[in-house]
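Posted in: Structural Biology > Protein-Ligand Complexes

Title: Requesting predicted complex, protoporphyrin IX containing FE in pocket

I'd be grateful if someone could produce the 3D structure tokens for the following input. Sequence and ligand are given below.
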Amino acid sequence: MRVHYDTNHGKFWKPRSESATMSEKQPTYNETVVKGFMISAIVWGATAMTVGLLAALQLVFPALNLDLPYTSFGRIRPLHTNAAIFGFALSIVFAAVYHSIQRLLRTRLFSNALAMIHLVLYNLTIVGAAVTLVLGYSQSKEYAELEWPLDLLIAFWWVIFMINFFGTIAIRKEKQMYVAIWFYMASVITIPILFIVNNLAIPVELFKSYSVFSGVFDANVQWWYGHNAVAFVLTTPFLGIMYYYFPKHINQPIYSHRLSIVHFWSLIFIYIWAGPHHLLYSPLPDWAQSLGTAFSIMLILPSWGGMLNGFLTLTQAKERIQTDAIVKFFLVGITFYGMSTFEGPMMSIKTINSLSHFNDWTIGHVHSGALGWVGFMSFAMLYYLVPRIWKKKLYSERLANTHFWLGTLGILLYVISMWISGVTEGAMWRAIDENGQLAYPHWISITEVLWPFRGFRALGGALYLSGVIIMIYNFIKTVRGGGAEASAPVPQAA
Ligand code: HEM
Ligand code: HEM
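-- Reply #1 --
Done. Output follows.
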């Protein structure tokens, strides 16, 4: 059912002229913290992708390890994942939350001081993470590598963020809370719970601790956390971004407000149970593995409900698909959300997982979500926000389009080569010769076959990164004065 809904003020849709007086009553919004997190996102995003590209090249040319412990694959891989997820994606989330809740709730932030403390401590943590990971300090838990002093710092600034988030909700002028805020709220509450439980550890030295969990129990807690890091860092807040920035940009209501509410409740209820799909064929009890599979398959329903709501919203502005780079980023971002949330449930089925687990297929799945969904939704939001926050025309729409095409080509090269490489590797592992022996007993003979696909992946990553460098150039030129090339009128301060 189609419901007209004003995403800015959480009210049913009003024609522009009727709501024009609204801007006169606008409180003074804090844009400094939004700018800070946008800059953090760009800096950490470029760093993460450069390190990711180095990791990809090392898998093609091992000499690029440089024979140094600091640049070895084992250290730069967690550096890449931490910088990408916690440096890039989380900065985007904080920028989006601080920017949009002020508008959606029609109030200033609860505390500007707390917001600045959050910005500073957060960036110090990411610097600390980069240094300690390169030096080899790690808890050896994926996406939870950081040692206990940094964990404590993270818990501290998350509480500060939480106080500011709920404080802003408490002082709001707008009674009704738009669905984007519910999606943000799910992350604000769930992330600290996951993070604190999985990082419970006994410190033995300044940078060494031991988890309080052990064995299969440890694995289960770890993937309850790991999977929900995907859910509550890389999915729910980005759905909030979709529900707020996409309708705002095309100046149309979301297709169905009712569907967005069903999407929200069903998604968060189902996501939290799906972690065991990371532990199929492990010593985890069989019933728990099957539970993970069942919930993962169910997850396709709310995910595709959300994707459809995005697509149907776009039908109201389909004439802009050809010309508007931001619309293109949103369209391809939502498409990759649909693709990765179709692929994920398939990979949760045991027979398929026995082929995809431990190989490049998983890496392809990860990056169709990370580059396609997270990356493109982030770029769409940045292109929307930079001209508005700095109050300058975008320097070049043409460069934004170039970025879009380089990025799209990069993702396709990345994920297609990883799918081929993964399926090839999985099939070679299980191939048997006429005597019933393994046909490819030597790892190196399989690796040699995968070499060209890993080369294509590195090329895909290089294209994606070059698009990001063009975006950064475009933003620098925009902030320094805007450009004659800009075709769109200067946007009003949102
Ligand atoms: C230029 C872009 C990128 C390149 C070239 C790249 C490359 C890589 C490489 C080579 C790996 C290691 C694969 C392996 O161990 O076999 C990796 C892992 C990973 N990357 Fe990226 N990456 C890029 C962007 C991103 C972004 C933007 C994100 C997140 C928002 C991301 C998230 C991850 C994650 C979560 C893993 C670990 C996957 C797993 O353990 O299954 N990457 N990446
Ligand atoms: C319906 C939604 C989804 C389901 C059911 C799902 C399911 C899966 C499965 C079965 C695996 C392989 C586990 C293994 O064999 O070890 C996996 C890995 C992964 N997925 Fe998804 N996925 C979904 C959506 C996404 C999205 C949207 C993203 C990114 C934005 C994502 C990021 C990841 C990452 C980072 C891993 C690698 C974890 C690791 O081993 O390090 N997934 N997912």
